[in-house]
């Protein structure tokens, strides 16, 4: 090990970091040898002085990395820029592609989106602020099991939703919202029931977008969180107003491409770029770089060895921060350290106390919450139904499968890289900052300086604007078709629906800001809301799915399942929360002989992972039991008959009778039935592989050794590169005809436009 070179000349000839004395280096070097660390110079890192990531990129006040005015320019500038770009793209398609913006097109994008763009849209819509931030937070809490369960637990819903995407084409080809089919099948009471769940889903998703975005912008520039909550939606409103769903789709492709390119940059820096100061040689400069999976493994291994910090210990009064004039050791900055700033010692509930294992109790609990909660935010979110409606029949199932497999790499590869790096780089990161989603910018800034933080902000805005736009269109469709057309003006025209849709886009943007302000005011974190969503909306998943997948679910069964499941979920959630310590800890995790106060409900107890797991599981499972039990009783009593799908096909009418620009044969049962079998086979197959086969296959690895972790990181690395290439190139390849028309200023004729 390189640390032996430092010790070779004894204490008098010792060359080391200013805050790592000879005796400390000697102790660490012996420990590193015993731990099997061969590449890392453990004395090249001041482990007792966690890296102040905010200081590295420059301190603009309150720990920010840029001036406050720059934050405002960034927030508003991105919005205006993408509004202009997407508006121009829509205008060009109107001129050279024959596009006409009607109410039908505003809300369905013509129902002819191809596989590549469908997949890119799915990736973009499913990439929330939480995808980039919360996935790294769970990596810093549970180790490598966190990113895996985030990725796998939120991919299966997209893969399985592909089944519903084909069922839409078969049974409800004219629908605009999933509530229309509920209304036709189960009537007004069910329609209002699931309208409530749909709006709740949209608010929760949008609230999380704003929480993550506002927290990062506040940390980066000092912009007030309330201001960020209201200004972030501005750009989304602008381009959604002008172009509708098609503008959202075009912007989503750009956003997805930018996110994937940034992802490739980050994983390359973590696994392939050693940095200016290598961690494998003796130097007076602090090593804040990685460069290989082996070095990341060795850093995490050593981090687990170091003793955990407690409140009674003496902490250092500062750290050396490298600057452009003095890259090492840097200037000494006075800092206040507490035990919350450290991630040393064993991880509670993990095999061997290691970050490097899939055997994590809390990690598995998070996986359950993640799987259940995300069924709600896909199956009850109108934006995913809208993407399925917009996709052409030949692209719907393939687009969802491809989109799910590509999206998997974002939390898996990015959080495995940046989330674990925030630990391995010994970053000064209290738990509340990690819960707010600041682990990725912290790791990125330590690795790449100020540019790394700006790249994270760019990725974040790509995620917020694309998903935010999809949510705006989703809510606009719900209000236009399921409130205005259904209850206010059943004889409305397409022009009236278009006007209502655009007004709702603006109104919802304002509501989003108010809801983000509410979440900030009550003091719940991004992670808290993310884990809560399953409890709130999970009970609607099975009834909504049954509306399209089985003839035997009844109205009363669906309604009882949705409301009964939610009520019991809330009761279970609060009951378990009341048995937790008032600070949110589990009593079983306390040291022997230590007691805590229980019986209270507050943000901490309600945010306990076991409480939220209980609520989520009850919501999904009990709702299904209630729904099928009620339906079975009704069939046994002879009060219900199986539903005829022809009623759904005939019951949903379009306002503007436009012909879809797709071949007629794609809408036939001869084409759709094999597509349904295909998506069922691969959707279920990939889901079983991700949720059961993969984690079971690595259980025997226990705590990963260096070779096993390198294999794990290599899979994430390669998946990131391959997925990025596919999702960036395929939409361009499929739409090259339209792109050529624009580049050559050639207007499409009916013959060239058809099925292009």
Task: Spell out the key features of this protein.
single chain, 756 residues, mainly alpha, two-stranded antiparallel ribbon, 30 helices, 1% strand, globular, disordered C terminus
Helix % is 55-70%
C-alpha-based Rg, rounded: 27 Å
Compute the average pLDDT. Answer: 85
Stretches with pLDDT under 50, minimum 5 residues: 751-755
Biggest sheet: strands, sense, closure? 2 strands, antiparallel
Shape: globular
Decide which structural class fits the backbone: mainly alpha
Strand order of the main beta sheet, please? 1-2
Binned strand content: under 5%
Number of strands: 2
Q: Please, how many helices?
A: 30
Cα separation of the termini: 61 Å
Task: Explain this structure.
68% of the residues lie in helices and 1% in strands. With 756 residues, it is an all-alpha fold. A two-stranded antiparallel sheet has the order 1-2. The protein is globular, with a radius of gyration of 27 Å. The model is unreliable at 751-755 (pLDDT under 50).
What's the quick description here?
This protein has 756 residues and is mainly α.
Please specify the SSE layout and strand pairing.
Layout: H1 3-7, H2 22-34, H3 53-56, H4 68-96, H5 103-108, H6 115-126, H7 129-142, H8 145-171, H9 178-186, H10 188-221, H11 225-272, H12 293-305, E1 318-321, E2 331-334, H13 361-379, H14 382-390, H15 393-407, H16 409-424, H17 431-435, H18 439-448, H19 450-488, H20 494-522, H21 526-537, H22 541-549, H23 555-578, H24 603-606, H25 609-637, H26 645-651, H27 669-699, H28 706-734, H29 736-743, H30 750-753
